[in-house]
Amino acid sequence: MSDYVDDAEAERWNHHPGMVSLNPxxxxxxxxxxxxxxxxxxxxxxxxxxxxxxxxxxxxxxxxPPLAAMETFxxxxxxxxxxxxxxxxxxxxxxxxxxxxxRKGQGQVKKFDxxxxxxxxxxxxxxxxxxxxxxxxxxxxxxxxTVYQWVIFWVMANGWVPVVTFxxxxxxxxxxxxxxxxxxxxxxxxxxxxxHHPMLYARVHALHHRNVNIGPxxxxxxxxxxxxxxxxxxxxxxxxxxxxxxVMFHAMFQQVSPVMSHSGFExxxxxxxxxxxxxxxxxxxxxRYFECNYGTSELPFDKWFGTFHDGSAxxxxxxxxxxxxxxxx
Length: 329
Known about the structure:
The structure is a single chain. The two termini are 36 Å apart. The chain contains eleven helices and two strands. It is globular. The protein has helices at residues 32-43, 50-62, 75-102, 129-157, 170-195, 198-209, 224-230, 244-261, 281-289, 301-304, 313-326, and strands at residues 267-270, 273-277. A two-stranded antiparallel ribbon has the order 1-2.
C-alpha cells in the first residue's frame, strides 16, 4: 500500500513513493532553487551518484597505475583495472543483497514489490535468479567494461587523444565530472530504446527483463551484446578531453549505480533512519510495465517522446494501451 499517494496504482505496490519527479534542470519556467536541491540531493547525500564517486576515488588511489605504465598491454596493470571494476561491484551488490534479501535487515520497509527474488525458476540461468544475475554481471558486464577501459587507457597513455589534468584545467575537469551522469543518461536512453526493438529485445534484452522483480545483482545482468552497446558510452573519453579519473568515475557510475537503482528498495534503513537513497521507482516501473521509462529521471526524454510513467494508474493504463498497439501492428 502506498505511503504517500492516494491513487489506484499504489495498490499494486508494497511501497509506492509518490509521483515520479524529473530533473528540474529541464523544467519551464526555470526554478534555480529546485535545480540546486536536486543536485545537492544527488551529490551530497548517500546516493547512486555519490557512492560511485567515492568508489572512483578509492580505486583510483589504490589500484589504477599511472598512464605511463599503460603504454603497452601488460598483465599487471590490466589485472589492476579488472580488480578496480570487480571489487566495487561485488562489495556493493553483495553487501546490498546480504542486507536486503539474505539478512532481510529492514524487512519490507521501503520495498517496492512485496515478492522475493526467484530461487527455483527455470527461466533463469542455473534456475536461480541470484546466480543468474551474478553470472551475467561478472562474466559478461565486468568483462566487457574492463576490456573497453583497457583500450581507452592504452590510447590515452600513448598520447593519441587529448588528456587533461586537474591541476592545469580545474574548471573543465570538475564541469566534465558533473556532466558524466547526464552523458550516461543520454547514451543509455538511445541504447535502451534500440534494445526494445522486437528483434533485439527477443534475442538480447529479454535476458535482463527476466528480472521483473529486481534485486541488486540485476543492475547490469545483461547479455554480452547488450553490454557491448551499454558500455560503449565510455568511448566519449576518446572524443572529449578527459583525465583517467573521469574514466573511472564514469565506470563506477555506469557499473555501480544500477546496483542501487535495481535494489528493489527506495531507501536503505538503519533502524528508523533513512541512511541512503537506493532504488529508483522510475526504473522499477520500467521493469514491471516494459514499454515506458526507457531512460533516466536525469533527462526527460521519456516525457518528450510520450513514454513517461509517473507512477499513476492513468500512466499504467496509457502504457498498457501503447504496449498492446506495439505488438498488434
